[in-house]
Amino acid sequence: MRVLVVGSGGREHALVWSIAASPLATEIFCVPGNPGIAEDAECAPIDVLDIEGIVDYALKQRIDLVVVGPEASLAAGLVDALEAEGILAFGPSKAAAEIESSKGYMKDLCARIGVPTAAYQRFTDADKAAAYIREQGAPIVVKADGLAAGKGVVVAESVDEAIAAVDAAMRDESFGAAGAEVVVEACLVGEEVSFFALCDGEHAMPFASAQDHKRAFDGDKGPNTGGMGAYSPAPVMTDEMAEHVLTTIVQPVLDAMRAEGRPFKGVLFAGLMITENGPEVIEFNCRFGDPEIQAILPRLRSDFLPALVVAAEGGLKHFDLRWRDVSSMTVVMATKGYPVKYENGSEIRGISDADAIPGVTVFHAGTKLEGDKMLAHGGRVLCVTAMGDTLQIAHDLAYQGIDAIDWPEGFCRTDIGWRALD
Ligand code: AMP
Ligand code: GLY
What we know:
By secondary structure, the protein is of the alpha+beta class. The chain folds into 4 domains: 92 residues, Rossmann fold (3-Layer(aba) Sandwich); 56 residues, 2-Layer Sandwich (Dna Ligase, domain 1), CATH 3.30.1490.20; 128 residues, ATP-grasp fold, B domain (D-amino Acid Aminotransferase, Chain A, domain 1), CATH 3.30.470; 95 residues, Glycinamide Ribonucleotide Synthetase, Chain A, domain 4. Helix content is 30%, strand content 29%. The strands form 5 sheets. Strands 10, 11, 14, 15, 16, 17, 19, 22 and 23 form a 9-stranded antiparallel β-sheet that branches. A 5-stranded parallel β-sheet has the order 3-2-1-4-5, sandwiched between helices. A hairpin with a 2-residue loop joins strand 20 and strand 21. Helix 7 runs antiparallel to helix 8. 50% of the residues are buried.
């Protein structure tokens, strides 16, 4: 098969790396890709939002399957455009991607079908949102309705902070059109876990669980980021819990979306809070988590490519995957200053030394090759990933990999996995 992966981050490097291990993959392409991905795939400089450009490229390269990484491409209708040309694609249509791209749609859907999620109200008027916040009190959560690259959510400790978040979204338009509407919701308390299910529009197959670390600094301090590290599996997600999530959360959502005429295909990523009352949905995403998938894929024993094909074509009901009985961890190295303000262009050395450690794989998230120098080119730059019989072993190996990398302008959290490690 000729496979095209869309995206340029650590997630897409892990996807390409995993697909490259498939005997069914004859040629792999990636747009726009990155220097790490270029070792396994032919990269072309086409933007993830250039729908026409990607479709033309897929036709020209006679692609059999397109795997779409970023939510922005899905929300822009890339899968619809590919399917209109008869190209098989892994990922939801634009309408189905609204499960992530409109928090209001997602909340209304959950409320309508009784899927547990935080109590909420939607607002298009900042004064009304502020009045509701004063009435409810803090802590309280304010979310921009649309896609805001992980920055649209404020978990406010005070009423003033929550109202400032409403003002930032609605009056200052910090997120552009994505903040014209906000959702204000109750603050859930518990342990957070990411749950992934492959979906073919009708059937869902549990894929894997992982735990992310969203805050920038050790001890879960500092600003929210796209994710600073992850491990898989997440011990809170027992087989029983996974079955419960599948039958009470994932399948009802799938059934409802199919009934609405927007069947969900691809991967449904449920961000869950395991509360006293059981799992509740914090958010749904319509794509693989980054960096969760970097931790998950090394554990997959089965060939990944057929799973992607079957999810895209239908037939998951009779499909199964096998996993290695190991733990995996990925630690993100980011440019100092991320997620607020940082500079590109610092030199990174030692990536191949880290990669040479048995059990360690370095995924590139934001790098650029200039001559023979590897430069940082983004906030999250590398994902140092390791597997081991226990999470402790995976942890120790991943941090050995970090130690092998010489990059003074970078930083990482030193406590990835703390909840699951003694
Ligand atoms: P999101 O962008 O929806 O993933 O939200 C970012 C982060 O904010 C989540 O991973 C949670 O840690 C936190 N969060 C979002 N909604 C809630 C909520 N209702 N209660 C508590 N924490 C939340
Ligand atoms: N790591 C969280 C996300 O991909 O949204």
